[in-house]
Amino acid sequence: MSTDSKISKLFSTIDDLKPSFIDRLSKAVSIKSVSGDETLRPEVFKMATFLKDELIKLDATDVQLKDLGIQPPPVSISNLPLPPIVLAKFGNDPQKKTLLIYGHADVQPAQIEDGWNSDPFTLVVDEENDKLIGRGSTDDKGPVMGWLNVIEAHKKLGIALPVNLICCFEGMEESGSLGLDQLIKDEAKGYFKNTNDVCISDNYWLGTKKPVLTYGLRGCNYYQIIVKGPGADLHSGIFGGCIAEPMTDLIQIMSTLVDNKGNILIPGIKEMVAPVTETEEKLYEEIEFDVDELNAASGSKTSLFSSKKDILMHRWRYPSLSLHGIEGAFSGSGAKTVIPSKVIGKFSIRTVPNIDSNKLTKLVIEFVNRKFKELNSLNECKCELIHDGDYWVSDPFNKSFRAASKATKKVWGVEPDFTREGGSIPITLTFENELKSNVLLLPMGKGDDGAHSINEKLNISNYIQGTKTLCAYLHYYGESE
Amino acid sequence: MSTDSKISKLFSTIDDLKPSFIDRLSKAVSIKSVSGDETLRPEVFKMATFLKDELIKLDATDVQLKDLGIQPPPVSISNLPLPPIVLAKFGNDPQKKTLLIYGHADVQPAQIEDGWNSDPFTLVVDEENDKLIGRGSTDDKGPVMGWLNVIEAHKKLGIALPVNLICCFEGMEESGSLGLDQLIKDEAKGYFKNTNDVCISDNYWLGTKKPVLTYGLRGCNYYQIIVKGPGADLHSGIFGGCIAEPMTDLIQIMSTLVDNKGNILIPGIKEMVAPVTETEEKLYEEIEFDVDELNAASGSKTSLFSSKKDILMHRWRYPSLSLHGIEGAFSGSGAKTVIPSKVIGKFSIRTVPNIDSNKLTKLVIEFVNRKFKELNSLNECKCELIHDGDYWVSDPFNKSFRAASKATKKVWGVEPDFTREGGSIPITLTFENELKSNVLLLPMGKGDDGAHSINEKLNISNYIQGTKTLCAYLHYYGESE
Ligand SMILES: [Zn+2]
Ligand SMILES: [Zn+2]
Ligand SMILES: [Zn+2]
Ligand SMILES: [Zn+2]
Question: Which residue ranges does the record assign to the Peptidase M20 dimerisation domain (chains A, B) (predicted)?
Answer without folding.
Answer: 217-374
